[in-house]
Design a protein that fits this description.
The protein is built from three helices and 33 strands. By secondary structure, the chain is mainly beta. The chain has one domain: Neuraminidase, CATH 2.120.10. Strands 2, 3, 4, 5, 6 and 7 form a six-stranded antiparallel beta sheet that branches. The chain has a four-stranded antiparallel beta sheet with strand order 1-33-30-29, with no helix packed on it. The longest helix has 17 residues. The radius of gyration is 21 Å and the shape is globular.
Length: 397
C-alpha cells in the first residue's frame, strides 16, 4: 500500500506527465548572428579573418515586417579573456543592429545602430515595430568598463522602413524609474512590465496616459522573471531576489486578470527558470524555455564573489577567490534544457521535451508565424551563443 507521501508524489508525477503529452516541438536552426564589425578598440580584432560573433547577452530582439532585428547586447569580446581573466574593456555593450530576412533566411548586408549601447531591456514585437523598454548601457558606442554603466527609463519603438533600408526610432512614454532585467508581456493592446516589486501597464492606443502602476502580485520582489499574456491574463513566473549576497530563486507563479484587476496564485513550477523565456502558445499554454534553477550554484558564486570583493586586488586572498570563481565558470554545466509547459485549462505544469541545444538565459522571447525563436543569449556564466533556434509547437492528438 502506498504511503500518503508516495501517493502525493505519484499524483504530482501523473499531473506533470499529463500536461507534457499535450505539446511537442520540432526545431530548426536559423543562420547565426553575424560578427560585430564596429572598429572602436584595438583590443577587439574585428578585421581578423578568424573574428566571429561570440553571441550576445541581453540583446534587443524582435520581429518587424518578417525581419528579425537583433541589436545591442553585451559580451566579453577580448580574445582569450573572460569576466574573471584580466581584460582591458570588461563587459562590452554594443550598439550595432543586425537584420535577418526571415523569408529568405539571409542577413542584410546593411548594418544599423541603436541610439546608444544597450542591453538587458525588455522587448515586445508589435505590428508597428519592436518596443524596447528600459535596459542598461552607455551613451557612447560602444560601452565598456571605462565609462559608468547606466540604467534607463527610456522606452522607444524600433521599426524598419518600407524598403528595409532604414531603422527608425520613435520615443514612447518613459517608465517611472530606470529598469533592467525586467519582464514584459502583451495582452491585447496593453503592455505590462514587471521589475522588482513594480507592475506597470501602458495602453498602446492611449499613450498620452503614460504608464499606470497596478497592484503587485502577492509574492516577493524579483528580477529576471518571465512573463507572457495568455488566455486573458498575464502570467508572471520565477525570477530571483538577491539581498546581502544571498539569492532566493523563485518557483512561484501568478496570474493577473485585468478585468478584475486582481492576482491569483498558480501552482508552483516543477523548478525555477529565472532569466529564461516565456511564450504563449495557442492562447492556452505558457511555455518556458531556458532559464536557471540552480540556487546552490548561485549562492556559491555570490559567496566567492563576496570574498573577492572584500579582498585587496592582487592579494593572495583575492587570487584564491578569483581562481575559484573562474573554475566554477569554466566548468559550468549549463542552464535548463527541459521545456516547461503550464496548461491554463487544467492548471497543470509539465515537461514537453527538451531544447536541441544549451538552454539560453538573458534573451527575449520572439515569435514568427507560429514558431518560437530563441535568439542568442547566455549559455554559461560569461559565455554567449550566436545561434538562433526556431521551435514549432504542435498539439498532440
Amino acid at each position: 500500500m502506498l504511503t500518503k507521501q508516495a501517493m502525493a508524489t505519484a499524483l504530482a508525477v501523473g499531473s506533470l506527465c499529463a500536461s507534457a503529452q499535450e505539446l511537442s516541438f520540432t526545431w530548426r536552426e536559423l543562420p547565426p548572428i553575424p560578427a560585430n564589425r564596429s572598429e572602436w578598440s584595438d583590443a577587439i580584432p574585428v578585421k581578423a579573418p578568424w573574428w566571429q560573433q561570440i553571441g550576445l547577452a541581453g540583446p534587443v530582439v524582435g520581429v518587424h515586417r518578417d525581419f528579425l532585428l537583433v541589436g545591442g547586447g553585451a559580451n566579453f569580446p577580448e580574445p582569450g579573456l573572460t569576466a574573471t581573466r584580466a581584460n582591458r574593456l570588461g563587459k562590452v555593450y554594443w550598439d550595432e543592429v543586425f537584420v535577418l530576412d526571415l523569408n529568405r533566411q539571409r542577413w542584410l548586408e546593411r548594418r544599423f545602430r541603436l541610439p546608444r549601447a544597450l542591453a538587458y531591456a525588455a522587448t515586445l514585437s508589435l505590428p508597428e515595430g519592436v518596443l524596447v523598454i528600459g535596459g542598461e548601457g552607455h551613451e557612447s558606442p560602444n560601452g565598456n568598463a571605462r565609462s559608468k554603466l547606466k540604467p534607463y527609463a527610456d522606452v522607444f519603438l524600433m521599426r524598419l522602413d518600407d524598403e528595409a533600408r532604414a531603422l527608425e526610432f520613435k520615443p514612447y512614454p518613459s517608465l517611472p524609474r530606470p529598469i533592467s532585467y525586467g519582464a514584459a508581456a502583451l495582452l491585447g493592446r496593453t503592455v505590462y512590465v514587471q521589475s522588482g516589486k513594480d507592475f506597470l501597464a501602458l495602453d498602446l492606443d492611449a499613450l498620452d496616459q503614460g504608464w499606470r502602476a497596478l497592484a503587485p502580485w502577492p509574492g516577493e520582489a524579483r528580477d529576471l522573471a518571465l512573463a507572457t499574456g495568455v488566455n486573458g491574463v498575464v502570467v508572471l513566473a520565477s525570477g530571483r531576489l538577491t539581498r546581502d549576497g544571498v539569492s532566493t530563486v523563485h518557483k512561484d507563479a501568478y496570474a493577473y486578470d485585468p478585468r478584475s484587476r486582481s492576482w491569483s496564485v498558480l501552482p508552483e513550477m516543477p523548478h525555477a527558470a529565472q532569466a529564461g523565456e516565456a511564450f504563449a502558445v495557442q492562447d492556452r499554454f505558457v511555455v518556458l524555455m531556458g532559464g536557471d534553477g540552480n540556487l546552490e550554484r548561485w549562492n556559491q558564486f555570490f559567496a566567492l564573489e563576496g570574498q573577492r570583493n572584500r579582498a585587496q586586488p592582487g592579494s593572495v586572498e583575492w587570487e584564491q577567490a578569483n581562481t575559484a570563481v573562474t573554475f566554477l565558470q569554466d566548468h559550468h554545466t549549463g542552464f535548463n534544457q527541459d521545456i516547461l509547459v503550464f496548461d491554463t485549462q487544467t492548471r497543470r505544469w509539465g515537461v514537453a521535451g527538451h531544447l536541441p541545444a544549451p538552454g539560453p538565459v538573458t534573451t527575449q522571447p520572439v515569435t514568427w508565424r507560429g514558431e518560437l525563436l530563441l535568439v542568442s543569449g547566455e549559455v554559461g556564466p560569461g559565455k554567449r551563443t550566436p545561434k538562433i533556434w526556431a521551435g514549432r509547437p504542435q498539439l498532440n492528438k
